[in-house]
Write a structure and sequence with these properties.
Elements lengths: L4 H10 L8 H17 L7 H15 L17 E7 L5 E7 L6 H4 L1
Antiparallel strand pairs: 1-2
């Protein structure tokens, strides 16, 4: 059976992706999770169990971080440091200060 718009439409109808849980079921699950968390005796947990619990809890409680700055807004370097190593293993370092007329794309 070739994959085309008709077969893709049928596959999408059969697929389970994108179907959210009903509101009542989500509310019941949240209530159940709340009861389980309230019943946990944290003093009896081992250190590794506490760390695992923290790991799982943070995945769902912390917002996902996103890129705050566009890549086109990066600050161009004002200095370039080079290190040359000869056959004897001696390193020679050079620092080049860049003026305001220098463009990073000119270096490439």
């Amino acid at each position: 059976m070739p994959f085309n718009s008709n077969s893709g439409k049928k596959a999408g109808q059969v697929s389970k992706r994108g179907r959210a849980l009903p509101v009542e079921l989500r509310a019941n699950l949240n209530e159940l999770v709340g009861k389980i968390i309230n019943d946990i005796n944290y003093d009896e947990l081992s250190a590794s169990q506490k760390i695992k619990l923290l790991d799982v809890a943070l995945k769902y409680s912390l917002p996902r971080l996103s890129i705050q700055k566009n890549l086109t807004e990066f600050e161009e370097p004002r200095e370039i440091n080079f290190s040359f190593v000869d056959e004897d293993g001696k390193a020679e370092k050079r620092n080049i200060l860049l003026d305001e007329n220098f463009k990073l794309k000119d270096l490439a």
